Amino acid sequence: MEDEKRLAVSLAKGLTAEGYAVDVVHDGLEGLHRAGEGVYDLVILDIMLPGLNGYRVCAALRAAGHDVPILMLTAKDGEYDEAEGLDTGADDYLTKPFSYVVLVARVKALLRRRGQGTGASPVHVHGDLRVDTAARRVFLGEDEVALTAKEFAVLEQLVVRAGQVVSKAEILEHVWDFAYDGDPNIVEVYVSALRRKLRAGLIRTVRGAGYRLETGR
To answer: Using 50, 70 and 90 to split pLDDT, how confident is the model at 79?
Structure first.
């Protein structure tokens, strides 16, 4: 299983660099427990999991009513395996070996599809601010603003809940991950960077509660 572990760690590093918060679990039972907590936007499942294989984890999640998008990874070939993966409730599958670029494209497509399924648009417009969460691009007026992956991820958490208060803990959980044990004030650093790059009054600090993206302009 060492190859699978190396692949998982490698994919996690790549997806983290893209701005996603990624948790890695190497055991099927633990993965089922973690995914069942319902805090994830997407689950990537390897069929070759000890404890409980990917098919069974997927089937158990669906039986419990979880509709999180699931991308299945398989080392096998053939229509049977594809059909089995989709029959247990997976939304998409990739056969190893696969290109990392293809994996990222599938991840983005599944997240975009989920957003559209809930009636959400990938493009959020608030006054002269326009954030395209699918293309991961930000515009202020006619000008495109270059953001780092983490800056974009923090802004995305605020923009999808514009007008609402988003706590520092929520941002940490979605932009970093459950295992982050660094300084929680890292969120303030990124909010300050966004204020500099966008507009000072765009993100309001709500003392003791979190941050709110202002929608008035």
So the answer is: very low
52 phi/psi in degrees, rounded to 5: -155, 120
Bond before 69 cis per omega within 30 degrees: no
pLDDT band of 210, cuts 50, 70, 90:
very high
Per DSSP, the residues of the chain read -HHHHHHHHHHHHHHHHTT-------SHHHHHHHHTT---S-EEEES--SSS-HHHHHHHHHHTT----EEEEES--SHHHHHHHHHTT-SEEEESS--HHHHHHHHHHHHHHHHHHTT--SEEEETTEEEETTTTEEEETTEEE---HHHHHHHHHHHTTTTSEE-HHHHHHHHS-TT--S-TTHHHHHHHHHHHHS-TTTEEEETTTEEEE----
Going across the sheet that includes 210-213, the strands are 165-166, 210-213, 203-206
Q: Hey, how many other C-beta atoms are within 10 angstroms of the C-beta on 124?
A: 20
Residue 178: per-residue pLDDT: 53
Percent of the chain scoring above 90 in pLDDT = 12
pTM over 0.70: no
